[in-house]
Design brief:
By secondary structure, the chain is mainly β. It has a single domain, classed as Jelly Rolls. The chain is 9% helix and 34% strand. The strands form three sheets. It has a seven-stranded antiparallel beta sheet with strand order 8-5-10-3-2-1-11. Strand 6 and strand 7 form a beta hairpin. The chain is globular, with a radius of gyration of 16 Å.
């Protein structure tokens, strides 16, 4: 995985372009990208944490399930701060679970566990943290989606071509599972 210390989109984010500097961000600051119907905001990434963890939010409208995927070397947490998010996860033995998470609820996804989520209410928000031997994957969002300085949701969904899912995913420890099926209600 590549650590990216500065991006062409960083100038308005408030995140310093060089590692090892303390910083503070005010509401609305951070590196932002639109992907699908969601807004992802990165507050700290591999470049600030020596590639040990990241901290981001995902906010979006009620919508379709985000495609099933797995992180072979990265652990991921979901902490819901607004709305409701249904988390789907499968353990390494193939047992599937799903849980509706509402504000204050937490979900943990170990590495190598297929998972997906769906925003169940408009204006839902998840705080995410990812860490593991492979580092962090926060730059996946801006490389697959569309970097933006806009603070709201995209007017039109940003849906990348299927071949980009695999190409960008492999760079950032995200493997999509197009044939995966959830036993959903």
């Amino acid at each position: 995985m590549t650590i990216e210390y500065a991006t062409r989109h960083r100038h308005a984010s408030g995140i310093p372009p060089e590692p090892g500097k303390p910083y503070f961000l005010e509401k609305g600051e951070g590196d932002r990208a639109h992907l699908f119907g969601d807004l992802f905001t990165i507050y700290a990434g591999g470049e600030q944490t020596e590639n040990t963890f990241n901290f981001f939010t995902c906010e979006g409208p009620r919508g379709d399930i985000i495609p099933a995927h797995v992180h072979p070397d990265t652990y991921e947490v979901f902490y819901v701060t607004a709305g409701a998010v249904r988390l789907f996860v499968e353990d390494t033995e193939g047992d599937q679970q799903e849980k509706l998470l509402t504000p204050g609820d937490f979900g943990f996804v170990p590495k190598n566990c297929p998972h997906a989520y769906r925003m169940e209410r408009h204006h839902s928000q998840v705080v995410g943290v990812a860490a593991g031997p492979a580092g962090t994957f926060e730059r996946f969002f801006e490389n697959l989606g569309a970097p933006t300085e806009q603070r709201g949701l995209p007017h039109d969904p940003v849906v990348p071509p299927a071949e980009r899912l695999d190409e960008v995913g492999h760079r950032y420890d995200v493997r999509f599972l197009p044939d995966h099926r959830w036993d959903t209600r």
